[in-house]
Design a protein that fits this description.
2 copies of one chain form a homodimer. Chain A is mainly alpha-helical. Chain A has a domain of 53 residues: Orthogonal Bundle (Multidrug-efflux Transporter Regulator, Chain: A, Domain 2). Helices cover 56% and strands 3% of the residues of chain A. Chain A is built from 6 helices and 2 strands, in the order ααββαααα. Chain A has a two-stranded antiparallel ribbon. In chain A, a hairpin with a 5-residue loop joins β1 and β2. The interface between A and B is large, with 64 and 65 residues. Chain B binds a DNA duplex through α2.
DNA sequence: CTTGAGTCTCTAGTTACTACAGACTTTACC
DNA sequence: GGTAAAGTCTGTAGTAACTAGAGACTCAAG
């Protein structure tokens, strides 16, 4: 639409960024994207600032930052005074999270692979995988979250 | 409570399995745990079958199986005819998912580590991490989900 | 018999979206 | 200019896997 000036309708912005229309509106509600101008008929009109900001969001999300972390990063990016150190803190914490998740997943992978392998050549009625699942839950508690860390909800039935 | 016979109140079952009381009730609503008997006053009373089943659930969840996959595994475990092969299919698909997640996370980790490292010794106002986030989103699309695979919601802002 | 811990149901919150329904706006074509 | 198709609007509700709270009730111990 509106080819004049740099304004984009939401669909065009969607195509440029690969971000779904509903998701863009969601980001607006979530206060990640600033409220755009509107056409006389009420359509959202985005400028290049929105494009840049949405690109940032997409990229950060692709790197696994949560919405809340993205908000933090924006704050740090917007106030242009010495962001580097503080950004490094946020990103460093996230990096540790990612590494912890990798470790967890690798442990899972190992158990799965071993059990599936035992399964593979078995032909009897008692499946080693099923048997394994019926065994006591390993405590595995001693795996201190690398920081006073609130996240990590995905992988663990922890606690 | 009720020390006679093998029955456990929900709190006792919770302690035995390390699964929160609310989660146990949630599993009942989700039809993962069979509906237990009740005391005259309406308290849930669990037997050893419930204990075993809940142990199974916890263990499978700890290995990253979804609730729905756990349901499938139960089905296969319950009908005791040649489960091994079919179980292997379910577990194998899950294993592939886990491996794909690991690959994604490792890619994230690499980018994060590199950028944070650049950050670390920087002292100027333009933070390399922030700059990196403002760059175009890499397409990275060509990463076919190893199966007609519906899951994989966590890591990607895919599509 | 009272007290306090345990349990009950029901509802709503979380995260990051996604998917409608039903109405309205814009654009494209004739 | 008129009409049809495509785009967009708001609002609500759904997803996964729990978690948290309110307010009422039960149970076991002293």
């Amino acid at each position: 639409m509106n080819a004049t000036s740099g304004t984009l309708a939401i669909g065009a912005l969607s195509k440029r960024t690969g971000c779904k229309v509903e998701t863009i509106r969601y980001y607006e509600r979530a206060r990640l994207l600033p409220i755009p101008a509107r056409s006389p008929g009420g359509y959202r009109l985005y400028g290049s600032a929105h494009l840049k900001r949405l690109t940032f969001i997409r990229r950060a999300r692709a790197l696994g930052f949560s919405i809340d972390e993205v908000r933090k990063l924006f704050k740090l990016a917007d106030e242009r005074t010495r962001p580097c150190a503080e950004v490094r803190v946020v990103a460093g914490a996230h990096l540790e999270d990612v590494q912890a998740k990798i470790a967890d997943l690798r442990a899972m992978e190992r158990v799965l692979r071993e059990t599936v392998a035992q399964c593979a050549n078995g032909r009897r009625a008692d499946c080693p995988l099923i048997e394994a699942l019926y065994r006591e839950v390993p405590e595995q508690a001693s795996h201190q979250p690398s920081a006073p860390n609130r996240r990590r909800k995905i992988l663990k039935a922890d606690q």
